[in-house]
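Handout, section 4.2: multi-component inputs.
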Amino acid sequence: MTTTHKTRALIVVTCLSLMFTALGGRLVQLHVLRHDELSSQAAANRGQVVQRQGRRGEIRDCNGNLLANSQSVRIVCADPSITTSNAGVVAAKLSPLLKMDVAVLQAKLTGPGQYVRLKQKVDEETAQQIRSLKLKGILFEDQYLRTYPHGTLASHYIGFVDSDHKGVQGIESAMNQYLEGVSGYEVIERDRKGREIRALRTEGIEPRDGYHVVLTLDQVIQHVAETELEKAMSEFHPQAGVIIVSRPKTGEILAMSCRPTFDLNNAGAALADARRNRCISDVAEPGSTFKIVVCSGAMNERIVTLQDRFDCHNGAFLYAGRILHDAHPYGILPVEGILYKSSNIGAAVVGLKMGAPRLYEYIRRYGFGRKTGIGLPGEVSGIAHPLASWSSLSITRIPMGHEIAATPIQMIMAMNAISNGGKLMKPIVVKRVVDDAGRVILENVPQQVGQPISPATTAMMTTALRRVTTAEGTAPKAAVEGYDTAGKTGTAQKIEGGQYVRKYYSSFIGYLPASDPELSILVSLDDPSGGAYYGGSVSGPVFRRVAEKVVEYLGMPPQKPVTNSKQMASVR
Amino acid sequence: MKHNRKREPLRVGTVSRAVLACVCIAVVGVAYVWQKNQIYRLGDELKKREATASAAEKRNTMLAAQLAQLKSPALLEARCQQYGLGLVAPREQQMVRLPEPGPEWDAKLLAPSSGFVPSTVPAKKPATRTVAR
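Output:
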């Protein structure tokens, strides 16, 4: 080898050595000196912790019919830093699919930043169509959408969720802890194109879907209640209306309908007034339906019997300087007659004989002045003034359902106690909670919360209340042909600005078969117009129509032969 | 000196051991790569199946809601009226209610001496079954 060759070789070796030294130096810099910074940056680019949301549980009726579920939908988003250059074309393609104006879309696509939501609640099919367009800078995010297949059916009972999928009202709120799923997470790694490398998923916890809530509500009975209430609303044009159907023996609520109502799928658009569950949140003076409390209390205390007769003062009774009137003048009436004729004076006289302390005790025994514990949010206690604050007139006014305020649910539960051997039951709205596999997580069993009166007294009360639906009673139109029906009417004057006005709450609470009740139904209309306002003529027929359809649906056999059965159109 | 060194003959055993070692290393290497490849392939397969299951679940939920809507009493009633189907519930006179036999009925049936038809109606109020005539 010549000197020239040796020199050249030396130069090459030196250059190579320098290059490798530089490379080594760079490697030391990247892997040793900047190790912490760069490794965390690499991990952040590659790895990701993805939160997985558990699906919210379903709400079903007592027969397993779906009332609410959560559907997976998409949020369509965009990265304006990518879409700005091509916004016109992208907007034109997305506009018909997202059903949005091109100009609005274009404005969003050319906005500042790297993230903008174009549209929420986009169904999977539309998302798939958009994906097939292969538009750059268009992204999708998962979202759950709560859907209510029946719209307005039992809207106050079922309730709805907010934008975070948390229950706001009704069962959705009351059972939120069961319905809400538990979120999980996954630690994943993505490839250069952002796709997950499934084999490198290192750890994760599966989300748990929410439990399913099975209600005591029956969607067919609820539909009957809704339809009949709607008819009553068109016929009498009241400000509001309520129908509750329950099983007296268990306290189960089979239907709970309120008007005005709202569509659960668009709850945000409804007025707060329409969203209020009047069955549990509204209090009103119950009127004559409250006579069941004073009469049953007096009979239970053996102060009076059904046959004891009282002077009803021909419709005008002066007490403590004020005259109490009856709707129709009556002379001497037995206690039974006081009930089926609904004499205010008769009830006041029974109240006077009973005495304020005992009357107050029975008011409390029936559960007035405290919540029933139905388990729905928004329930109020009603107003039952303590004995100390009663005026001299109270003993004559409370027996006829004035100076006291109760919710419809309190009234029907009190009537249930009378129909059910004196057992005051807790109202039940949730039958059970189950998981995906059908295992029972929670089961609500009927719960007796009191025994205001004895079974013997309830038998006497039923005897009197049966006559309410006869020709001599106040609600012959409430009688259900072929069925042993009992009930009580109520026509309470409304108070506005502290004064009684010529507006009324017309109500009827009844049960059937009276001898062994399977059903109790409350109908209450707030300020019916068109002349009729008595509970027997306004709410009584609504009660009958609901009862006819429900007994037919449940296949309850009649107690008496049906002679002239009407053809009733209903859907099973 | 170097040129004078006598070359030792190759031993078959040594060579075969070396070849075997190389083959083993190659096999292990290939197996490792194959296994890794399988893991990634199965991962991808798993991902596809998960996506299919998820899509099926989503579709199922959507169909459940649709089915509930189609089965709703309000819709059925509207359809009945729309198509004039004249579907109504049977009148009470059109129904025959049969008393459902209780345990005493079974006991009588099982007794060899008894006739097939019970002589008395059960004392307890029987459950009833409704049959449309």
